[in-house]
Specification:
alpha/beta, seven-stranded mixed sheet, four-stranded mixed sheet, 16% strand, globular
Length: 447
C-alpha cells in the first residue's frame, strides 16, 4: 500500500469531512493538520512534526494523550462490557461513577443522568427544570436566563441560552427567547471598581429581572467563574454566592454549566466550590472522561429527583439516547477520577499554575496586551490591535503562526488563552511561555 503523507490525508479530509466550528473555505489559507498519533501533551502528524496541545483539544484532555492508566482501564473494560442499554439495565462503571461524583459534592447533588456531549447535558438540565416546576404545579415557569456573552452549546435549547451572535443569529427563528443579564466579567470594571464591585453591579440586573419575572422563570444558567467561549471572561466567586441567594429567594433554579470549568480547571474540582454553593443542576462533560470518549451528565438534588418519582409515567423524565451511560466512557471517567486521587492533582496543579504564570509573565507585562488573567489552569490575555481589519484576522493569523511554532492554540477573537493538560514538565512550560510570546509578537508585527 502506498504511504500516505499528511498532504494526502488532508486532501482526503477536505473532500469528505465537514469540520466543526469552521468556515470550510478558510482551509484554502489556514492549514488543516492530519494527526497520526499523540503522546502526553503532544500531537504528531504523519511526517513526525509535533504540536504542543496547549488547549487540551478543545478543553477535554486532562492527563495527556494515550495516558497509560486510562488506556489500561479501557482495555480491561473492553474484555468485559462495551455497552448495554441503561433503560431497564445497569452496570458497574455507571454505578461507581455516579456514586463517586455524588460523593465529590458531599452528596448535595447526585442522581446522575447521562448523555454524550455538553450541549445535551444543558438540554437535560433545562428540560428537568421546566418539568420539575410543572410537576410541582408551577407550569407558568417556562423562561430561562443567561449571562451576556454566554455559550452553552449548539443544540436548539442550548443555543437559546447562548449569547454569541456568530453561533446563534442564523438559527434565531428556531429558538425560544431567553433573558440576557449583565455579565460579571471583571474586565467590565470602571476606574476604582474591584471584581467584587462588578459582581454586585451585575447582580442588580438579575435582581431587577427576578422581581419582575420570577414567577415565570424556571432557571438561570451560568458557567461558574469563567465564561469560556466569550473570551475567558473571569469573575469573582462572590457572584455565585449572591446569585444562589437570589435564586432561592425568588424560587428560580440555578444551573451550573461546569462542562469546561469543572474537573479541576479552575483550581477546585468543581468551580462552584470556590463560592461554597451548590446549584440545583450541575452539568459536566469534556474533561470528565479524560478526553477519551464522549460523555456528559447532569447531577441534581434529591428534591428535584423526587418531584419526578411517581406512578404516573407522564411525571417521569423520559429523555434518552441510545448510548446513555456507556460503559467504556464511564470506565474512562473512573480512571480519570482515580488519577485525581492517586496523584493529588489539585494540589499539584497549584504548583503547575504558578510556574505557568511565571513563564507567561512577559506577556502579562507586554505593551500590546491587557487584562492578563488566570484562574486555576486557565490563562488568558487580550491583544491590543487598533486596526479593525487586522483585529478581525487576528485569530486565524495567530493559529497559523502557532502551528508553525509547534503549538496548538486557537484564540477567541483577540483573546489568546492557554488551557493545557495537567502533565506539562519544566521544559514544556518554558517552551510554551517563550513560543506564545514569539508567536504573539510576530502576529502583532504582521510578519
Amino acid at each position: 500500500m502506498k504511504h500516505q503523507t499528511s498532504s494526502d490525508w488532508i486532501a482526503r479530509s477536505l473532500r469528505s469531512v465537514w469540520h466543526p466550528c469552521t468556515q470550510m473555505q478558510h482551509h484554502e489559507e489556514v492549514p488543516l493538520i492530519a494527526v497520526q498519533r499523540a503522546k502526553g501533551p503532544w500531537l504528531y502528524d504523519h511526517e513526525g512534526k509535533r504540536y504542543l496541545d496547549a488547549i487540551s483539544s478543545w478543553w477535554v484532555n486532562l492527563f495527556g494523550h494515550a495516558n497509560p492508566r486510562i488506556n489500561a482501564a479501557l482495555k480491561e473494560q473492553l474484555d468485559t462490557l462495551e455497552h448495554a442499554m441503561l433503560a431497564g439495565f445497569t452496570h458497574e462503571p455507571v454505578i461507581e461513577l455516579s456514586e463517586q461524583l455524588a460523593a465529590l459534592t458531599g452528596h448535595a447533588l447526585g442522581h446522575a443522568f447521562y448523555a454524550s456531549d455538553g450541549a445535551s447535558a444543558v438540554e437535560i438540565a433545562m428540560k428537568m427544570s421546566f418539568h420539575a416546576w410543572r410537576n410541582a404545579g408551577f407550569s407558568d415557569k417556562q423562561e430561562f436566563v443567561c449571562l451576556q456573552g454566554s455559550y452553552h452549546g449548539e443544540t436548539i435549547g442550548a443555543l437559546s441560552v447562548t449569547d454569541v451572535p456568530l453561533f446563534k443569529d442564523a438559527y434565531g427563528p428556531l429558538l425560544r427567547a431567553a433573558h440576557v443579564v449583565a455579565s460579571p466579567d471583571a474586565r467590565n470594571a470602571v476606574e476604582g471598581e474591584s471584581s467584587q464591585d462588578v459582581a454586585r453591579r451585575a447582580l442588580k440586573d438579575v435582581e431587577r429581572l427576578f422581581e419582575e419575572r420570577g414567577n415565570k422563570i424556571a432557571a438561570m444558567i451560568v458557567e461558574p467563574l469563567v465564561q469560556c467561549a466569550t473570551g475567558m471572561a473571569m469573575y469573582d466567586p462572590l457572584y455565585l454566592e449572591l446569585l444562589r441567594e437570589l435564586c432561592d429567594r425568588h424560587h428560580v433554579h440555578l444551573i451550573a454549566d461546569e462542562i469546561a470549568v469543572g474537573c479541576g480547571r479552575t483550581g477546585t474540582f468543581f468551580a462552584c466550590e470556590q463560592a461554597a454553593i451548590w446549584p440545583d443542576f450541575l452539568c459536566l462533560s469534556k474533561g470528565i472522561s479524560g478526553g477519551y470518549l464522549p460523555l456528559s451528565l447532569v447531577l441534581t438534588t434529591d428534591a428535584i429527583y423526587q418531584s419526578f418519582y411517581s406512578e404516573d409515567i407522564t411525571r417521569g423524565f423520559l429523555h434518552s439516547h441510545s448510548y446513555t451511560g456507556n460503559a467504556l466512557a464511564c470506565r474512562a471517567a473512573l480512571a480519570t477520577l482515580q488519577i485525581f486521587r492517586d496523584d493529588d492533582v489539585l494540589n499539584r496543579n497549584r504548583e503547575l499554575a504558578t510556574k505557568l504564570t511565571i513563564a507567561m509573565a512577559p506577556l502579562a507585562e507586554h505593551e500590546r496586551t491587557h487584562h492578563f488573567r488566570q484562574r486555576g489552569m486557565i490563562f488568558a490575555f487580550d491583544a491590543i490591535e487598533p486596526d479593525p481589519a487586522r483585529a478581525a484576522a487576528f485569530a486565524r493569523r495567530f493559529f497559523t503562526s502557532a502551528v508553525e511554532n509547534e503549538l496548538l492554540l486557537r484564540p477567541i477573537g483577540r483573546t489568546v488563552y492557554v488551557m493545557p493538560p495537567y502533565v506539562l514538565d519544566e521544559e514544556e512550560i518554558e517552551l510554551l511561555g517563550v513560543r506564545v510570546k514569539s508567536v504573539f509578537e510576530s502576529v502583532i508585527a504582521g510578519s
